[in-house]
Amino acid sequence: QFKTSLPPSKMKKQEERTGHEIYQSLGSPKRIMAPMVEGSDLPYRLLSKRYNTDLVYTPMLYSRLFVTSKKYREKSFQTVPEERPLVVQFAGTEPEDLLNAALMVQDHCDAVGMFMISFYSCLLLFPSCQVSFNFS
What we know:
Elements: H1 19-25, H2 42-50, E1 56-62, H3 63-68, H4 70-76, E2 86-92, H5 95-105, E3 111-116, H6 119-125
């Protein structure tokens, strides 16, 4: 069982659904904007929607920073109702961080993609993140 910092009242109970049921709940999108590293920010997503994209993705966000840094959240995650349906993507090395990040955005998106990555992959994907490591 994963731990979350959010109280149970903030967690939405979801029943299990098939992939096709999830696809239908997103409006059965035909034109999907593939996510791009640091290229799928809000202005680009809105531009994509203007040209009839049915489903858009955020850039990959680092779950640890998203959970712990308000500054990172405000800078990296902006959304407006006009861009829905929206998929938010998180990568992280800790299951608890991925869960907490997903719970934080659950009311602002239609789906969440979560990717467990290794420590070294994290360094490659997020080189601009100031991360301190203790090797003792």
